[in-house]
């Protein structure tokens, strides 16, 4: 706290892990007195750099770029790049720290990292985004590589941005390698990667519900966000016979009490991914739906809630409302969307709650599969990748049960995910000595 007191999101993420992992360390001699957690909370490297670029009118802008290389004990650093005005060292350190545990949980050999910039792609032309991405990569390229650090997308970084970033890396290094994941299908991308985080979150919710003899079919589902994760979580829920009634963006949420179908989802994907529009436009197309400006969707009654937008978007008060309205399952599609009070409330009410590092790990897991395909220079089919994704999510669920099951029969998935993620990284760090 002394060293990172000015970094609230990072402290929040570390505290959550410490609460469950420190007692475990105390109980296990091999981890005691080795300062493992103290070493894990200090990034191996934090790079910050200037990104200067020129807009369409010839005006020069300066943004700040970052890469947090948190832990490489079990593999090359791996984690997304976020372009959003809110980006700062605290947010990226929290995301990188979470990523270490998440990547460990996937069982794939990936260390943890995260990066990005306070650049806002909203309202920028494609040319401006390209110039920014190229400028960003002229510095980042010195610090990454297929065996060193393999970034991916996150908020504000989708297929378009990954393309521009990859193009500049390739030009500077004169080599075509799997240095980024989330690439286009015709140039090294993996099938199912765009879908993987959202699909994986729903597979995880399905596994949790199964422990209570329940399923997705017929359930009402509230989803926040309308970006990559939210879109594909919604798609999978619809495929499995659930009813998605909300989506949102930073300006408000839409409530469609009739539920969304494939056609409505296709409209949302076109609106957000191609037209780069706002979710409010949904009610112009489907007037029976409602738009609630400036609000989040948590007061809408539901069986399942999937927060898929951003950190701390669901408060303790929102959690209470969800519980009172009969919600039985919450799976985080975003990273740390539920604040500390909300997580406490879910645990207190003993409802199913999955932390993002477990439930949204499908994205990075499939990125790991993309790296494997790149190294082998092969491309697996959609079914092959989806089957592997399901298996990995199932394994993560099992790990959470193994370390998180309490005597009263309630599974604390936060504890389970933290300890399972910790053990593998800690063992590797112990084996490699004090470095
Ligand atoms: P996108 O940029 O595709 O979408 C983000 C969505 O969240 C948009 O609807 C956006 O609305 C909304 N949003 C962003 N900031 C805020 C805010 N401050 N308040 C309310 N809404 C906000 O990002 P992704 O879908 O990729 O990422 C969403 C979350 O999932 C993030 O937490 C990310 O870290 C996490 N995640 C993503 C993975 C991936 O594979 N993409 C993997 C694992 C986790 P608006 O358009 O108005 O900004």
Automatic annotation (TrEMBL):
A Pfam family that the UniProt record links to this protein: ELFV_dehydrog
Residues of the site described as Important for catalysis: 154
InterPro entries: Aminoacid_DH-like_N_sf, Glu/Leu/Phe/Val/Trp_DH, Glu/Leu/Phe/Val/Trp_DH_C, Glu/Leu/Phe/Val/Trp_DH_dimer, Glu/Leu/Phe/Val_DH_AS, Glu_DH, Glu_Leu_Phe_Val_DH, NAD(P)-bd_dom_sf
GO molecular function list: glutamate dehydrogenase (NADP+) activity; nucleotide binding
Binding site for substrate: 78, 99, 102, 153, 367
Binding of NAD(+), residues: 197, 228
A cellular component term, taken from the record's GO annotations: cytosol
Keywords recorded for this protein, A-Z: NAD, Nucleotide-binding, Oxidoreductase
Record: active site: 114
GO biological process, one term: glutamate biosynthetic process
Segments forming domain Glutamate/phenylalanine/leucine/valine/L-tryptophan dehydrogenase C-terminal: 190-433
Annotated NCBIfam families: PRK09414.1
Homology family: Belongs to the Glu/Leu/Phe/Val dehydrogenases family.
Assembly description: Homohexamer.
Descriptive protein name: Glutamate dehydrogenase
Organism this protein belongs to: Pseudozobellia thermophila
């Amino acid at each position: 706290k002394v060293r990172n007191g000015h970094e609230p999101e990072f402290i929040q993420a570390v505290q959550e892990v410490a609460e469950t992992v420190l007692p475990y360390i105390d109980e296990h001699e091999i981890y005691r007195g080795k300062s493992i957690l103290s070493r894990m909370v200090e990034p191996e490297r934090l790079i910050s750099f200037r990104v200067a670029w020129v807009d369409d009118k010839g005006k020069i802008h300066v943004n700040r770029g970052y890469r947090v290389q948190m832990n490489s004990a079990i593999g090359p650093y791996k984690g997304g790049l976020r372009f959003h005005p809110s980006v700062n060292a605290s947010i990226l350190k929290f995301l990188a720290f979470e990523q270490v545990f998440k990547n460990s949980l996937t069982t794939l050999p990936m260390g943890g990292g995260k990066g990005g910039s306070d650049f806002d792609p909203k309202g920028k032309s494609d040319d401006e985004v390209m110039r920014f991405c190229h400028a960003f990569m002229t510095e980042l390229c010195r610090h990454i590589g297929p065996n060193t650090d393999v970034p991916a997308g996150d908020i504000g970084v989708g297929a378009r941005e990954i393309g521009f970033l990859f193009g500049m890396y390739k030009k500077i290094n004169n080599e075509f390698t799997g240095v980024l994941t989330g690439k286009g299908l015709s140039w090294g991308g993996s099938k199912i990667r765009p879908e993987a985080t959202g699909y994986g979150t729903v597979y995880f919710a399905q596994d949790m519900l199964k422990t209570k003899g329940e399923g997705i079919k017929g359930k009402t589902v509230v989803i926040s966000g309308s970006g990559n994760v939210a879109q594909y979580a919604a798609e999978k829920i619809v495929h499995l016979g659930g009813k998605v009634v909300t989506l949102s963006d930073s300006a408000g949420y839409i409530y469609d009490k009739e539920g969304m179908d494939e056609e409505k989802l296709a409209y949302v994907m076109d609106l957000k991914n191609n037209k780069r529009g706002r979710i409010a436009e949904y009610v112009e197309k489907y007037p029976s739906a409602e738009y609630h400006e400036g609000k989040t969707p948590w007061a809408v009654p539901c069986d399942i809630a999937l927060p898929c937008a951003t950190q701390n978007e669901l408060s303790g008060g929102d959690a209470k409302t969800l519980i009172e309205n009969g919600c039985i399952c919450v799976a985080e599609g975003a990273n740390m969307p539920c604040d500390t009070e909300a997580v406490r409330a879910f645990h207190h009410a003993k409802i199913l709650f999955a932390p993002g590092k477990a439930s949204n790990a499908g994205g990075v897991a499939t990125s790991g599969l993309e790296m494997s395909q790149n190294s082998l220079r092969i491309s697996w089919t959609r079914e092959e990748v989806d089957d592997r994704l399901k298996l990995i999510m199932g394994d993560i669920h099992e790990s959470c049960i193994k370390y998180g099951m309490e005597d009263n029969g309630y599974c604390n998935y936060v504890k389970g995910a933290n300890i399972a993620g910790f053990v593998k990284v800690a063992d590797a760090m112990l084996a490699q000595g004090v470095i």
